[in-house]
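Help!! Second protein's tokens look totally different from the first
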Amino acid sequence: MKLDLYPGLGLRLEEAAELARLAESTGLEGLWSLEAQTEPFMPLAIALEATNRIDLRTAIAVALARNPMIVAHTAHELNRVSGGRFQLGLGPQVKPHIERRYGLEWSQPVARMSEYIDALHAIWRSWNTGERLDFEGQFFRHTLMTPMFSPPPSASGTPPVLLAAVGPRMVAMAVEKADGIIAHPLSSRLTLTSGLLPAVAAAGRAADRPFEISCPVLVITGGSDAAMHTAREATRKQIAFYASTPAYRSVLEQYDEGDRADRLRLLSRERRWDDMTDLVTDELMTEFAVEAAPSALAGALMERFRGVLDRVGLYAPYEADPEVWSEVMGGRGRAL
């Protein structure tokens, strides 16, 4: 199981080089860039210049806020220049954000994402093989590519496409079209083994095709009691935010906590953030976050998710001392 660094509010431009070097120097295997408070692609351009080993991933970039041609260009260049270290993580986002935050149309997300992936591969083939670009779908149309606008082929081929998927239809489509699934941070061993993994198995993935299951996992760690307390409360607040989203009510239903999700949703509408945090019990914290001292954290993650996840993004929604990640990776060696 690979361990990566996942800055929880996004990878800031001014921090990208430092965090990338930190991830590489401590033995972590990747750096993820989330579209939250920051744009996800530009920081990875800085990160690739600061490193030569680790994988660089958007996890996730909002696909339905962007045209496939724009994403294809950015991903192609990041993958080409990094020597194949870039991984394109995409997600559809939910209807209110696409319509009210991005001001775009939202409909048929599974069909749109399926066609989006097809469009990306058609564009990349035109650049890498010289094949004529002739993609016409229900939602996207790309039929013009002249030499003036065609980038040089990538010696590293096309980047892996990883898809955020929650519902069974999106999971089945991801198994068919993508190279992996990025589970939502509001995931536990129970929700993964009772929901996501059976859905992946039911979709009938070809045995000879690699397929990765990854997840940003909320972690609570620190070098002192005060740091642990800060980490614990920041994580509690993050769980409250995720659990207030209607699309994830089904996650809490698996713990017979659907009513709690409804209460969190009402409080979020009233912007009563502190009251929301108080609704997240210690029992839910234990399920949706992994708490351990830095030297024991890797072992705790492996104990919980070995055989379930192929890759974990260490998701700390708080400021952590860089030395923490060195201790985590030192403990990983003992846990293997």
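Here's the second one for comparison:
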Amino acid sequence: MSAAETVRAIRIREPGGPEVLEMTDIQLPPPAPGELRVRVITSGVNRADLLQRRGSYPPPPGFPEEIPGLEYAGLVEQVGPGCSIRRSGDRVMGVVAGGGYAEAINVRERETIRAPDGVDLEHAGAIPEVFVTAWDALFRQARLTAGESVLIHAVGSGVGTAAVQLALAVGARPVGTSRSPEKVERARELGLVLGVVGPDQWARSVMELTGDHGADVILDLVGAAYLEGNLEAMARGCRWIVVGVPGGAVGEIDLRRLMSRRVTLRGTVLRTRSPEEKVILARAFQDHVVPLFERGEIQPVVDTILPAEQAAVAHRRLEANDSFGKLLLRW
């Protein structure tokens, strides 16, 4: 049996600010049956990483509490017993529940996704978490279809920029909000139909754009701060799906307004899903979305690629909302 390998990783020394992130060495065991070892090229930086660093969002059992990171792109380096769909040298990417800030990781083979041909492997690190999240929320859950309007909050975020492109790919009309005029303008370059600078009056703008019809789907990446606006901007039969709550997790809502408009309200998260669910999602994403990248219909949106040693810088920028699209760590 192969011996454990020493690899570099970013460790959370203790709960706290970005300064608690430090480079360390960890022991990575050989891949278990059904696992691959992937040599990571880039790790994506996500808001869940910030919460884990602060000690408020621990990973599920079986994943390291001290090593953050929810996505990666890299090369298959070692194939464990029982694997059959990947080979050494394959370009892969994927979502993990933790431990992604490392130069090599062991992952379940069937949860890996083939990195798109024609997309630089460094940039592929900007795909898994945000595009899988947006695609699953918009189409597998909210059932967005051609001709419908979708309201995307935090449109300059990683999930927001992914959602704009995915909506356009099926003929839907993306409208979005952001606190930054600059981010709204950059989102328009991706095809955003209407961008509204929040936090006030955006609901009226959405209604005007849609002829008082409202949004057929709301992709809520803000949370409680936009509850009232969502109630004003939703169409009859609206599917409202909550993906993130940086604007607050608790708020009051008038259920009668949901009832009268026959609105479906649901929440979603990838991290805590069962391995079986993650396999199904990874396989479906590879079949239906990876080809869109290869045809040039959608693309990863990368703000900056930083050396892994500058993970604290990346966290500070994300906390300050000082990025458009994805921040990546290069190994």
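Reply: Different proteins will give different token patterns, so don't panic. Residues 128-141 form the longest helix (14 residues).
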